[in-house]
Amino acid sequence: MNALVFFILALYSVFSISIIEASKIESGFSIDLIHRDSAMSPYYNPSMSTLDLLKNADSRSSSRLKRFSLSLLSNENESPESFIIPNNGDFLIRIYIGTPPVERFAIVDTGSDLTWVQCSPCASCFHQDTPLYVSSKSSTFTKVPCHSQSCTLLPPNQHACGKSQQCLYSLFYGDKSFTLGELVFDSISFGSNVTIPKSMFGCGYYNNFTADTSGKPVGIVGLGAGPLSLISQLGDSIGRKFSYCLLPFNSKSASKLKFGNQAIIKGDSVVSTPLLMNSSQHFLYQLNLQGITIGQNTLQTGRTDGNIVIDSGTTLTLLEQPFFDNFLTSMKQTIGIESVQNVPKPFHYCFPSQPNFKFPSTILHFNGANITLTPLNLFLLVENYLLCLTVVPSHIQGFSILGNLAHVNFQVEYDLERKILSFAASDCTDLNLS
């Protein structure tokens, strides 16, 4: 058996242990979730059109698709380094590291486990616009010992002991990106909301991030279900729950990422479906999509396993073929409007916007939950007043991603304790202002 798989299976015996000393956060807390293309983001470029932004998003979506699919479909003889591919994500959060705290923007990733940033003194680092994290300037910094339980939460072939018995880590990505350094403890806070006094993260001294050369990213905050993620580190203090309510594309405001009691969604409209976490890739959030109803026509996937990953870092929804082909045919027939010629990439169906057009009812059928999508979840208005379908084909057999446009105006709660994902249709603009 692959050593990584064996290690992760064995890890479930200690998975419930919180690996930081965080005080009980009774009421929960929330932080701004900043879309990378919004005016609040350091990536913001007002000269880019909606179509330009979506082309970039499609490139990021393709990267994530390859990363996730290879992770899930790889055979046990492959090394983990051969199939991990990073991307630069769709959402950022502000974090404050060390004492005194230093503000940074970090990429939020529900498909990643380890949180890491670039650190000084850096032997080889990619360009970033902000200063590197300097551990010697933080009074709350400590090293993670190499023989500690915290260090052994990394797979055996991704950690080692340094000369001072510190815990060294290495992550090599499929696109030649990498990060190498040491695991450390330090204080991480989210503004005035909450402080994690002893958070564990990777301090990278040798880094290459080919997915983004803009100088904006400083690292990644992992929100996956793995034992090193921020969610697992907060553990019982937040009841292993988080949620978000994403604003529409091109919104001028920030969405909210909520933890603990604040993350709980209530009401008669809440529906839930099991989170199906693969034993060897448990940092991914998988669901089973049974089918999709468009108007009066229901398409069945014929699958009973976890055939779709819900991912906040992917913009578009990608459906495996031939299911996508059937979905597209049904959508075109139900709408009854011919597609324009020369459909702009990455789309496969666009038609001229028409006043008072009535969109067909579209329902996603998950195990135990039916989700009725709105036009905002399925179509975007792009150049020349074209409405384009934001569902595209997955080029990986047997693998799909429910992208974040499909999450817009839904409260989405991840309950890792009960292994349940819940949805509730909402007006996220009102909720994020409250």
UniProtKB/TrEMBL annotation:
Keywords: Aspartyl protease, Glycoprotein, Hydrolase, Protease, Secreted, Signal
Peptidase A1 domain boundaries: 91-424
InterPro entries (alphabetical): Aspartic_peptidase_AS, Pepsin-like_plant, PEPTIDASE_A1, Peptidase_aspartic_dom_sf, Plant_Aspart_Prot_A1, TAXi_C, TAXi_N
Signal peptide limits: 1-22
Protein localization: Secreted
UniProt-recorded Gene Ontology molecular function terms: aspartic-type endopeptidase activity
Gene Ontology CC annotations of this record: extracellular region
Domain of life: Eukaryota
PROSITE patterns in alphabetical order: ASP_PROTEASE, PEPTIDASE_A1
GO biological process, one term: proteolysis
Pfam family, one: TAXi_N
Family: Belongs to the peptidase A1 family.
PANTHER family in alphabetical order: ASPARTIC PROTEINASE CDR1-LIKE, OS07G0603500 PROTEIN-RELATED
Protein's UniProt name: Aspartic proteinase CDR1-like
